[in-house]
Structure formats: structure tokens, C-alpha cells
Amino acid sequence: MNAMRLLVYAVVASALVFLVINIFQIFFPSQDYAKEIELMLDAAEVDLGKYVAREILLPANVKINAGDFDTASRSVVFICNNPAICCTQGKSCPKIIEWDNVFMKRYVLAKQAKKVKIAARCRFEELYICKIYIGSEPAQIMLEGASLSADRIELAKQSSVKINYVVKNIGRHIMVAVPKAKIYVKNILASAEKWVLLKEVKGERFSLQPNEALNNSLELNFDRPGAYRIEFTLFEENDETNYVEDEFKLRVSGSVEITSGTSQ
Fold it and tell me: Which of 80, 125, 182, 184 is packed most tightly, with the most Cβ within 10 A?
């Protein structure tokens, strides 16, 4: 009987030890979530326009401030993008995550211990502009192919070219994409090679569901000869960190024929 009691005590003690260990791991995780996020931001700064994602265990009642990840060359904001666990921005609710992005209130509050999908993505405009997505992976543009319909044209025969491209959303959210081309002309009078921005052309916006691909084109018109460089960008309308780029060269020769009538 004593042996049986000892066995029961041993089983109960083992269960309690197991329970305590698991509770400790939940509320005091060995994973350094701040370090994990910092590593993702570092990786996102190297591969601009593409997100890096990991599943990270957030302890209960932990408040993460975006300012802790800001540097002299980087600015960070949070986006909680999973309605199942995210409150409305700036609002309290029974869900696990509260968050905000207004000035001086850039934070995420995890009210319960939970493993959460977290992603980071950046672009560079004088400094790194980075977003940290809490809850799920965001939309992601991928350029499967892009080409210029011609690399040389004669104005007497044609005055436009097209950028033909195939784009796909390989992320987890729907997105609205916008094609854009910056056209630079070479300044032949400069002693060194110099490109001058001539104009910017935007195409029509279009939506892409997750895993949806689209064949599309952007038409560009020219009215003067010269050497041109075309910087092509596809970007998400509401998220400047989600973008892809390509570049093309074009030689335009000849001149546009102008006809005029005479009065009698």
C-alpha cells in the first residue's frame, strides 16, 4: 500500500513538475523576442521589399515599443494584420493583441502568452522605413518576368514602347498594386554621364488575391530622340515597403514628322 502511494505521489509530482516547466516556458520564455525581431529587421534591410517572417513566442502582458527598434538610420512601425487576434488600432478589446501606430504611441501589447507569426519588411528613402507585421504574413509582390517591347525605336515609325510583365502576390493578404516608370534621358552635353529625370508614368491600379498572378503592361510614349533609362517599379498602394524594381535602356532616333496645312 505504501509502495502504491509512493507511486501515485511520484506520478503526481512528475505531472506538477511538467506543468510548472510549461507554465514557466510560457510566461518566461527562453526565446528573446526582441532579439528575434531585431534580427528580422537586419535581414529585411539587406533584402529590401521582401518580408522576413518567423513564429515568435510572446510572453503575457509584454509591451513592445517600436521606438526600441528605431536607429539613426531606421524608423519602425507596427501593423497588426490578423483580425482573429488583433484589436482595432488604438482600441482595447478582448482579443490578445492591442496596438497603435500614432506618433509617440507605436506599440504592441500581448495580453496573453502566445506564439505569433511576425514579419518584417523595409524600403530605403534616405533612411530605412520598416514595418513589423504582427499576426500573419502580409501581401508580397513578386515580379515573375518583365521585358521592354523594343530596345530601339525610330520616331518616324513608332513613338511608344510597352513594359510587359507578369506579377504575382506570393503573400497571405489581398493587395492593390500600382505600376510606375521613371524615365530618365541622358544629357549628352554633360562632360560625365548624367541622367536627367524626364517624367514619371503611372499605370492603372489592380488587385491581386494571395497566390494570384497577372499578365499586364505599361505603355510609355516618346517624342524626341535620345538615350533613355527606365526605372520600373511595382508597389503596393497602401504599403510602401512592398515593391519590386527593374530597369531598362531604350534608344530613340529620328524625329516626329509634323504636318501643317496652308491657307489660300
Answer: 80
* pLDDT tens digits, 146-157: 999 999 999 999
Phi-psi region of 54 (alpha: psi -120 to 50; beta: other; left: phi over 0): beta
Residues 6+ apart with CB under 8 A from 82: 97, 117, 134, 135, 136
Integer Cα distance of 10 and 30 in angstroms: 27
**Grid coordinates in use for 119?**
514579419
Q: Which domains are present in the chain?
A: 33-134 (no CATH), 141-253 (2.60.40.10)
Amino acid making up residue 252: V
Tell me how far apart the alpha carbons of residues 166 and 146 are, in angstroms, rounded to a whole number.
Answer: 6
Chain segment 117-171, per-residue pLDDT in tens: 999 999 999 999 999 999 999 999 999 999 999 999 999 999 999 999 999 999 9
**CA–CA dist 235, 43 (Å, integer):** 20
**Would you say the pTM of this structure is higher than 0.70?**
yes
Write phi, then psi, for 256 (nearest 5 degrees): -75, 130
Q: How many CB atoms lie under 10 A from the CB of residue 76?
A: 21
Q: Which grid coordinates are listed for 91?
A: 482600441
- CA gap 246, 234 in Å, rounded: 9
154: enclosing H helix or E strand: strand 152-154
Q: Which of 33, 4, 252 is nearest to 134 (CA)?
A: 33
Query: How many residues belong to the chain?
Result: 264
Contacts of 133 (CB under 8 A, 6+ apart): 51, 53, 78, 79, 80, 81, 118, 119, 120, 121
Q: Any idea which residue has 535602356 for its cell?
A: 249
Query: DSSP labels for 223-264?
Result: -S-EEEEEEEEEEETTEEEEEEEEEEEEEEES----------
